[in-house]
Every structure is written in C-alpha cells, then in structure tokens.
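Reminder to self: tokens first, then the designed residues, so the page reads top to bottom the way the pipeline ran.
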C-alpha cells in the first residue's frame, strides 16, 4: 500500500469483508521527506488495524540508470518483483493492487496514443495470475466518498498533481476535457474495454486454431509455419512473432512484403525469422552450432546438450553387418587418420557422397535433400587429420572411406 486513497480504501474493504491480509509498502525514495511520511502513515495505520506490515526500500533512480528504463518503469519492475518474492515467502493466495476505473481509463488512453492492438485497448485485467485488482470497476470518486463515509484519512502524492509525465497529463488535462464532452466518458471507456475483453476471448480462440493449423513442426529451438496461413492477416502474424521478440515495425514490414524471396531474414534479440520456400522458420539464433570438437581417440563425446558422438573401432568379422541408418557412419578405419574433428559445415565444403565417384558441394547435396537454410547452418561434419570430410553427420558418409571387401577394421561413429 502507498498510503494514498486507493490503497487505503482497498485495505479497509478487504478487512471489512473479513479477508486475512498483510500490507506491503514500497519506499522508492523519489520524493524526499514525503516518501518517508507515506511510509510512516502506512505503518501507523496497519498497527492501528492490527495488520502485519512489510516494507522495502529501493534506490529507484540507480536501478533506472543501470537498466536504462524510465523511473516509472523502474518502480513498476522493482515492486512487482518484490511482490512475487514476498508472495512465495508468505505462501499467500494473491496480491491485491488498488488500480481503479480511472487508472484503467488512463492506461487505455496511453496505449491508444502509443499505438496498440486489441489487447492494449482492453486495459488491465481484473486478474493476472496472482495479481488481483478488486477495485477495477470502482471510480476514484467512489473511493474518496467511501473513505469519507468511514472517516478514514489518507495521504496525497504531490507528484500526481503535476502534469509532467504522460499519465499525469492524461489524468489532469485530457480526461477532464473528455468529461466536458461527455460526463460519462470514463465509464463508457471502461465498459468498452470490458466488451473488448470478451471479444478478445473469442478472437484468441480463433487465433489459437489458426496457429495450430499453420504450424508445420516444432522443436526446442525451432518452429516452422506455413507462410501463407501465417500471413492471412497482420494480427495473426503479430501474435505469432511477438513472443519471439519481433517488434510491431518488423511485423508490419514482413506483412507488407508477403512475396519475399527465400533466404530473407529478420532478427530479434534472441531469434531469427527465416523465409524459406513458403515457410516461416523461427529459431533461437544461438541454436546454430559454432564450435569445433576434437575426437582424438575412441570414446563418447558431448558436443552440446542434444548432440553426443560415439566413436569405436571394431574388427570386421564374417558376420559383421553395416548399420544402414543415416545416424551411423561405418568407415574403413585404416583409411581414416585420427584425430577426428567435428565442426559446422562451411561454404565451399565438398565430399564424395557414398555411392558416387565425383565430389559435390555439401550445400548442393543439402539443397537436393530439400534442407532449409537453417538446417544447412546447423549441419555438422566430421573430418579426419588430413582435413577430409568423412561424414556429413546424420546424412551421408564419404565414398572414399567406405567399407569394402578389403576392409579389416571398421570405424563406427554415431550420434
């Protein structure tokens, strides 16, 4: 609780309804002595009402500078992080915050001014996981009237009375003007937001169905969509790409260029979107292998969390059978020179595909196998000490190192 009318009213209402509550006060140290005054007021009120009181102090300005965010965003991140930490420590059922209808209207107008989709026009949700907003349909005027009726005082944040930040400008300048046009403006905006939330539920179900039918495959680090279905409308595209960090401007650019050629890419902070033969491939950029790994002798080697190489040499007996599985390589051990090396395929790599006599670019081989650019980037090869590629991992061995009737020992590599 801040000590303002909203949080004080919330506390009194919850107590009147006989909920078991504990109060939290965050001192952001942004208003000098006024911040300390608010903390003292909250502590005294909780003591009088026999409510357990928790307080926390933040260096909000330092946090904002360190993380390069606004003071308002810094305060929000700090308090919600602390709320969640305390919720786990106390094992409580929910965290009640005192947002009311006027806050809702301000939020919707801010989103509208900045540019938003339907979700932004729905404003704040009455419940968001453990965050509960019991007063969301109550006006500020009704809150003040309630406090007056029970003779409960509160403190006022002086910064709320200055039209400096965007929210204050909307609260002090724009909303009063809207009320001149229509005294029920705030109420009507809040009602519209509630209707949009209902519409959004229907839309989200339709969207989920569309995404499901558009998805071709999904793995830990990559998901593939049918581009035509994804590009059916910009809203669908945005909802697919936004969770991967792509900005609205990028989404609009992609949507406006529906006929882009294969190979075109867009980057977010952690993901890459690749256009590939009518498909959208979204993958974690760091999932493309970059390292090399030496295999000096027989044994088991861990390349990464998902890839392990197993190397062994066996005698070619009369009953020896070559494993016909592309995840296995069976080679003439006496033709392969150790140490082996595992590395990503690079431009210009060539090998002689098993069953052929002439060499071929691995990139052409993978193209013939209908591999995407992403799959080509992830392709690993195994080379010997002479630098010859003996195996395009999980695809094809090199014909020069194949097992023949003259082979005495077989090098088996699998992963």
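Designed residues (415 positions):
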């Amino acid at each position: 609780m801040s000590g303002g009318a909203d949080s004080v009213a919330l506390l009194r209402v919850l107590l009147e309804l006989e909920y078991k509550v504990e109060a939290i006060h965050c001192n952001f140290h942004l208003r000098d002595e006024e911040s300390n005054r608010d903390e003292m007021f909250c502590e005294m009120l909780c003591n009088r009402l026999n409510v357990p009181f928790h307080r926390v102090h933040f260096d909000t300005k330092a946090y904002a500078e360190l993380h390069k965010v606004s003071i308002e965003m810094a305060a929000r991140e700090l308090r919600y992080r602390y709320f969640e930490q305390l919720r786990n420590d106390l094992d409580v059922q929910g965290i009640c915050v005192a947002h009311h209808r006027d806050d809702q209207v301000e939020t919707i107008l801010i989103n509208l001014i900045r540019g938003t989709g339907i979700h932004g026009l729905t404003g704040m949700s009455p419940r968001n996981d453990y965050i509960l907003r019991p007063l969301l349909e109550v006006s500020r005027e009704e809150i003040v009237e309630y406090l007056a009726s029970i003779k409960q005082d509160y403190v006022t944040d002086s910064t709320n009375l200055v039209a400096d930040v965007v929210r204050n400008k909307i609260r002090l300048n724009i909303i009063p003007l809207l009320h001149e046009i229509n005294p029920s403006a705030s109420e009507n905006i809040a009602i519209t937001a509630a209707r949009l939330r209902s519409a959004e539920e229907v839309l989200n179900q339709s969207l989920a169905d569309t995404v499901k039918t558009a998805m071709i495959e999904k793995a830990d680090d990559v998901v593939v969509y049918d581009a035509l279905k994804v590009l059916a409308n910009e809203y669908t595209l945005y909802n697919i790409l936004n969770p991967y960090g792509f900005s609205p401007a990028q989404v609009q650019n992609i949507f406006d260029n529906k006929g882009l050629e294969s190979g075109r890419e867009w980057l977010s902070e952690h993901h890459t979107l690749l256009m590939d033969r009518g498909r959208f491939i979204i993958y974690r950029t760091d999932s493309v292998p970059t390292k090399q790994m030496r295999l000096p002798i027989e044994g088991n080697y861990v390349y990464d969390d998902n890839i392990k190489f197993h190397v062994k040499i066996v005698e070619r007996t009369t009953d020896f059978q070559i494993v016909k599985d592309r995840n296995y390589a069976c080679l003439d051990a006496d033709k392969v020179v150790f140490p082996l090396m595992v590395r990503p395929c690079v431009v210009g790599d060539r090998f002689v595909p098993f069953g052929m006599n002439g060499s071929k670019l691995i990139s052409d081989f993978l193209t013939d196998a209908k591999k995407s650019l992403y799959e080509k980037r992830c392709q690993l090869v195994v080379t010997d000490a002479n630098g010859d590629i003996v195996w395009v991992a999980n695809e094809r061995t090199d014909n020069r190192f194949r097992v023949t009737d003259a082979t005495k020992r077989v090098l088996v590599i699998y992963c």
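The first helix runs from residue 5 to 16.
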